[in-house]
Structure formats: C-alpha cells, structure tokens
Design brief:
about 240 residues, 1 helix, outer membrane lipoprotein receptor (LolB), chain A, mainly beta, about 60% strand, 14-stranded antiparallel sheet
Length: about 240
C-alpha cells in the first residue's frame, strides 16, 4: 500500500486452477496477529491485530488495528455475507493518529438507494454505487473468497475517499514465505495499477490457512510504506 508492475510468465498461474477451488467453505472467525512496519512520515514498528467476528444478528465485523508508541491505524468494516460468496459491506470506519495528529473517515452504505455517505472532517457527501461495491477493508475478504473459488484475476468497485475507484488484482505466482508463525507456500497477488504506476501493493495468501493473508507490503507514491507479517493465528467455529 515504486516500481511498475512486474510482468511474470503465464506459466506461474498453472498451479492455481479452478479444479482446486473450494466453493462450499463458510467464513471462519479468526484473530490474527502480525508484526508491522510502517512509515507515516516517521518510521515505526509494532503489532497489528486483525479479527473477523460473527454477530448475533447474522452480520459480521472485520477489524484491523496497528499501533506503536507514536502512531496507530484502526479500520473496521461491518458487513453481510451471502451464500453466493459475496461480501456486502454496511459501514466502514477509519482512524489514523500520528504524533498527536489524527484523521477520521466514515462510510455508510444504503443498499436500498444504491448509495454511500462518506464523512471526512465532519463534511458528509453522498454518491451512487453499483452492486457489489466494497470498502477499503471488505475487499480484502472478497479477494480471499475469490481466490478460494479459483479466480486469478479480480476487480472490485471500492468506495474510497469519497470516490468510486476500481481495484484490480492478479495472481502472479506462488512463493514460500517465512513468518514467525511458520513457513507456508503462498499465492502472490499484486494490485494492478498499470505499467507506469508509482504505487505498489503485494499480498501473499496461504491456501493451507484458508487463504489468510500472511504477508502484505504496500508502498505509496510519496514513499510511505506499510507491511504486515503473520505472527500468530487463532480460529473459532462460526
């Protein structure tokens, strides 16, 4: 989350065919702890906790919190999960604090009207959205489900910063990844921003862990970076 997108041989994708797809597995609640390293104007390191929880009303929450002594980032999405393997977000909350300066953003989905309301700096505005629109956290769950289904190229409409953006991803191969939690063969996915992009996002998903993210590296156009590496994992029955 500066290099252009690397073009890899198409043969790298042969290991990821629909024959391996799991089309029946439900969402499984989990708590994953990651080591983090991020640069938000000052280099920091710490831990991040990502949790997927089922609610009594049949809805779900997915949260991500990363913090250190001087900075922190918190995100949470609330959503419905449909049997057709579709994540339908209901609300999204974002908060970042660095050296005493904070930024907040909220997004609320109104599917009956096909719109979202975004609030940043106490200024709300609405926009129309198509079906299957995701938020900046929920798309990661949808991406995971689509990889389970055997897809190798994915694209999502994402409500991002008061705009509707298209996030495109593709599988670029497989790679053994060492983490504090163990070594796993992982599917490497890149966010495809085009050949001249000066931003890069790489995500590694472990099929052995139901396609959980075990590593993430993101570099912004201004050089700010964010990285995750799996440290511990707890799963529970939904």
């Amino acid at each position: 989350m500066r290099t252009g997108v690397t073009t890899l041989l198409a043969s790298c994708l042969l290991a990821f065919t629909p024959a391996q797809a799991d089309t029946t597995a439900p969402l499984t609640p989990f708590k994953a702890v990651y080591t983090t390293a991020f640069d938000l104007g000052v280099s920091l390191s710490g831990e991040a906790i990502r949790q997927l929880k089922s609610q009594d009303n049949g809805r779900w929450t997915f949260s991500s919190e990363a913090s250190s002594m001087m900075a922190g980032i918190s995100e949470i999405t609330r959503f419905e999960y449909h049997p057709t393997r579709i994540i339908k977000p209901l609300s999204y909350r974002y908060k970042r604090k660095v050296l005493g300066k904070s930024r907040k953003a909220t997004i609320d989905f109104d599917w009956s009207k096909g719109s979202v309301t975004t609030v940043v700096k106490d200024q709300p505005w609405k926009m129309q959205i198509p079906e299957a629109t995701q938020d900046k956290l929920s798309y990661q769950l949808q991406l995971r489900l689509d990889l389970m289904a055997g897809k190798t190229e994915m694209h999502y409409a994402v409500a991002d910063g008061g705009k509707l953006k298209e996030y495109r991803f593709k599988v670029t191969g497989e790679e053994e990844i060492d983490t504090p939690y163990g070594r796993y063969m992982a599917i490497r996915v890149i966010r495809d921003r085009g050949e001249d992009a000066d931003r890069e996002t790489l995500i590694w998903f472990a099929p052995e862990l139901d396609y959980l993210i075990i590593r993430l590296e993101q570099t912004e156009s201004d050089g700010k970076t964010y990285a995750l590496l799996l440290k511990n994992l707890e799963t529970t029955t939904p």
